[in-house]
Design brief:
The structure is a homotetramer.
Chain A: H1 18-31, H2 52-59, E1 67-69, E2 91-96, H3 98-102, E3 112-114, E4 116-122, E5 128-130, E6 135-137, E7 140-141, E8 145-146, E9 150-151, E10 154-155, E11 168-175, H4 176-180, E12 190-191, H5 193-203, E13 212-216, H6 219-226, E14 239-240, H7 244-250, E15 255-258, H8 276-285, E16 288-291, H9 296-305, E17 309-313, E18 324-326, E19 330-332
Parallel strand pairs in A: 11-13, 12-14, 13-15, 15-16
Antiparallel strand pairs in A: 1-19, 2-4, 5-16, 5-18, 7-8, 9-10, 11-17, 17-19
Helix pairs in contact in A: 1-8, 5-7, 7-8
């Protein structure tokens, strides 16, 4: 297992022009690229850091037998308000319900009566994992595969079903608002590698290779306080800045999730480059990224227990060829 | 924790008429009814058997760090062939894909490019949990709630989102074909409480209060051997007989799943009563039931390791008001 | 053919209490009830007024060969904003598109390349016809059928597919804002039978048995002027008052449509009774009602031509068991 | 108006190699290309042949006031069986139904009660029009537009909503099985221009510029006789051969539809080229093509009346950006 390493001295300056952004992001993409590291055929990326040893260690996190879900309920009151093209809230409908029973529609079934239902939903409309096929950079996704692998019939490589036996391991929460002493971070406020390391230290949590890291910005607390999703689904948000990349790579983090729609600070701190961490971490390092995780109850539990690590189980639905999946992530103490 | 108890001597005769079926099932429903046991407001039923202590013990199952998924892939080649009213295979489509990128549709995004997708699916079309709102018996579901709680807008009680912090605990596999020395059970072959106990003993696994029990009939192996789902989605199947109920209740099993569409033997061994275990266990005992679990890889792993218990994590999607949920169940050794 | 008749002297007082509303609506329901008029098995209601003779006369309306569509485009920018439970705007997606072709996904097809697509939509989310199974009054729909005929699997009687060979005949537009000399009627402003007759006279149009009547309130013009659908999908609206019923029945109108979400004035002018005309006309008289028709281009054409009658063709999609259908209504001059 | 012209003597030989197919199809594509004929911005193609004069003449077809629908019901028993990638039968569900009313879910509505529903369907799963954006030939669709105009968000040109004020005009039925004296044509049997002309003559129908031509092969009669859709959705079929193109172009046909899934004979009579008429007629001539029309009742009516022409109204749903639309086509005598 890897020890916590100090943040890099290099690359601490933020770009002020698109040209500088491109130079920085290109540099980090290449520097942190894991293509081929786990084989040319690998489709799991940094989940490979969750070794058998890491998983056994993760199990030792279960000490008091308490479970906390980090999944938002999936329903028509979800965060989607049309801001992100094509993403709507889930539509749920009944195939059979109590009314059918009342009207005698199941009288052929003897004394047994049932209800049944269906859902239609964009896979990234709520709490969800991005598959490694979700992002392309200069025409390539993780491990160097081209656009032709994601067509209207789905992704033939790096799809979410390729990590059907994950995402499970040790989870840690970095509760940034608590670290800063605020209720939540405001949209546009960014988090860098230095702060991540400092927050972990302050919380008394060691960071290990294969950890699944959850970043709380508190934006969902803000939504609840204001009573409206507002532009949560696609607008400005607090989140990770481009220099957070160092910390995730150097600590050999297996997967990353946050309580915002895009994990990264928005507007991004790289003028002219949208979502640079997705390019650096997901495409190049091969890191699975989760979004719209509800970390409020988890943060409360961590604070109450004085513990920021836990067993974490968040298996995606193995939808063949999908580039994302809704998920109900469980933290177990 | 509860010790394994012997199967009951009572109730071992199978009914031969509808009248006898009704008498037996009514008797078992009342005998095993847990309504009110965990409070009038309880919506978790036998999942309450998974105490903190049981969960901590479950964690001790993780010894070698190996994960096996029991989820069938969700796609258009799934088991649904129109046999069960309204259930179709999932439909997956892309909101954005590599072709859009190739045609320049995302050129406004700087260097970042993404793909996005959606799914429409009956919630019980593949590997899934039944919610406690899925079945009614004489107009009532678990804990005595009436039909008016499940309308076209969903279930207001006992819906799947009420167990969002489950289903996680110790899992055990009972591999009946292996116990019998056959490749798979044929449709119509049933399993009773005596065989469940004997199989557990033969496999060297103790059964504990709060266990999640997976029953392998091998029907999915048969589907693969024949190359066709045939009537898998709604037709005859091997499975649990009505007398299996005793074993599940007396061992305080938390949840139950099988590798068939309905868990129970079909045709049922209760003439005139369809799916009696759903009435006895789900409605009355409050036991969450899983179906269409793919237990092939798990059975192979168990045989290979000579171990039939494991940590089991199968969180449903918390779809508000849903009466079932697709799931990707993970067994962790 | 029926001559235009004068409005009734009776029933001209509006109710001021729920008790009075109930009395009035009950009276009109019974007075105008057509159950059995066209047979106990009839499922077409007042469309039966469109006799062969009426249809031949309708054809004589086609004199200059100009077609005007009254259908709003179906897309994600439609009127639905979540105000009406379960109604969302249509979701349209591609099964194959130009990007797939660009990426070579169809290279097996020789030189032929294709695109393909799908839609998911509430049937009454845009321009649409209500089926006679859409409304119940005191547990009965048109021709006296009970609730058990509309379950989760659809309607077995009075469904939209029962009028698959309609709705086609002579159409007339009553442009109320133009008659009043305003741009549009404001929400809450109602139209009664006297005004309908006066408007027809002012427009120089005779009203005949079997006519399909389109009522323009101008609310869509208002939406366009303000740039927002606002509460168009479920909120206050101008429209027909309860006393409009007389005119429709006495003129033997075959079908009725308007440019609002519910055709009737909202709040209704019957305290305590929601949508009384749906009860009187659709349920009891058996009149098919259309909603969210875009009558702006039609009104302009009528004004330009000085003619308010035309051939009208608005066939619903024969979706088996549906209680409504999207439609693209065509007026032909 | 154009008189019926004789079939061409040229081009009567069928290709026997892919090379010959390509040469023939390329030749016909260029020969019959209408790009620019109605302007560079035209998106209606041969529907432009339906002039005001033609539409007025079409109205004269309405002589006895009888309506015949050519739409198959849209439901789960439709022709789709998974043969054509991504096309499924429609899924229809209820948002509110009689059961909800029975259970009191609408008791807040006073005495008014309603039902409501939704559908999800591939746009070409049943009776439907192909939009001019449905087919590409060598990277171009009608009027020379490229692939970039049809992405995952739909078609920006030649989409079905561009013909929202159609398809309406004079229709004629060519009942080939009746002409041949058989019940139906068998899969693989083709129809050419000479036979089309002869059939029209035998039926006593003149063909005019702007006519909408319906071709009956009888395949739906065969489906009904055999009781199974079989491979109807994507397999071998009777239909038009490549040389049928001459007749449609020279007669200035406005639109074309048949009672098969692809209108053309399958296997095609152009080795190595799939669906050549779609390339020649839809892409190059700009002719809207309809498929899966149910022409059985229409054929019976025509035979009974001894008349094969009628007013024809088949307006597509104006789904923004769609490349096809379900339709309920009406023939009116």
């Amino acid at each position: 297992m890897t020890e916590v390493r100090s943040s890099p001295a290099v690359g601490r300056v933020l770009p002020s022009t698109e040209e500088e952004s491109v130079a920085l992001v290109d540099d980090l993409c290449l520097r942190y690229r894991n293509w081929g590291r786990w084989g040319q055929d690998d489709q799991r990326g940094t989940l490979n850091f969750i070794t058998a040893e890491a998983l056994i260690y993760a199990a030792s996190m279960i000490r008091i037998g308490r479970v906390v879900s980090c999944g938002l309920p999936f329903n028509s009151d979800g965060p989607q308000s049309g801001g992100f093209g094509g993403r709507t809230n889930p539509v749920h409908w009944m195939l059979q319900d109590g009314g059918d029973i009342a009207l005698g529609a199941q009288d052929h079934l003897g004394v047994c009566r049932y209800t049944d239902d269906a859902v239609s939903m964009p896979l990234q409309s709520g709490t969800q994992w991005d598959a490694l096929a979700h992002i392309f950079y200069r025409g390539e996704m993780y491990n160097g595969h081209g656009l032709e692998h994601v067509t209207s019939t789905g992704a033939t490589l790096n799809s979410i079903d390729r990590i059907a036996d994950g995402v499970v391991g040790r989870g840690i929460l970095l509760d940034i608002p608590r670290y800063r002493g605020v209720e939540w971070l405001e949209a546009g406020q960014s988090i860098d590698d230095v702060e991540l390391a400092a927050c972990a230290t302050a919380q008394g949590v060691d960071v290990r290779s294969g950890d699944i890291v959850l970043i709380r910005t508190g934006q969902i607390a803000q939504v609840r306080a204001t009573g409206s999703w507002g532009e949560y689904d696609s607008g400005p948000a607090p989140g990770l800045g481009v220099h957070a990349a160092h910390w995730f790579v150097e600590n050999e983090i297996a997967a990353l999730a946050a309580d915002t729609w895009g994990t990264e600070v928005l507007p991004n701190d790289t003028p002219g480059i949208f979502q640079p961490l997705h390019l650096i971490l997901l495409v190049n390092a091969g890191m699975t990224i989760g979004e719209i995780f509800d970390l409020e109850a988890l943060a409360q539990t961590c604070a109450e227990l004085g513990r920021y690590d836990f067993f974490f189980s968040a298996p995606p639905l193995p939808i063949t060829g999908a580039v994302g999946s809704p998920v109900n992530p469980l933290a177990i103490f």
